[in-house]
Fold this protein.
Amino acid sequence: MNGFIRRAGLAAVAAMVAAMAFASTASAGILTAPAKDCGDESLSQPFSRFGDGHQYKVVPGGSFEGALTDWTLAGGAKVVAGNEPWKVGGSTHAKSLVLPAGSTAVTAPTCVGLGEPTVRFFAKKNSGLLSTLAVTVYVKTSLGLVVPVPVGVLGGNGSWNVGPQMLIVANLLPLLPGDRTPVAFGFTPVLGSWQIDDVYVDPMRVR
């Protein structure tokens, strides 16, 4: 029962910080769904060496090399020295985000649509034999409600690994093919500590 209450508490905190993340971008013009004011987007192939040649865009701040503008960190989550070893974002990159047990991190909002089916990133489990990393996508509806949708759960072995392509269910919410909607991603470690780096979304569903 205590574990259930603790998980429920973490979920409540994550939902709250997600709402804060969306609220902090009120001047960006991407609060309502659908949204088309998404800014310029630079694409790359960061996972090509892992057999994934898809084009991706980095989530704002998702390399952890600069300011985490519009990110919300709670429970001791913070940027630390130490990059994923492949340095897909750049050879000079040297930072990542540590997520202690009981923490949560919610990204800045980024636009997705029918062409952004997946999120992918690097992760390392630092502690906890049975620890997992829960990934959630938060979408703000046209009614102003921030709705959490589970994306997936990762296991780890204590080393840096590239995560799988995780389907973003919220990308199906826009009503029309050309529409897009802002989402934020939440990362919550369960029963241990984790690190993440280089968070990307795939905007090229049609090849």
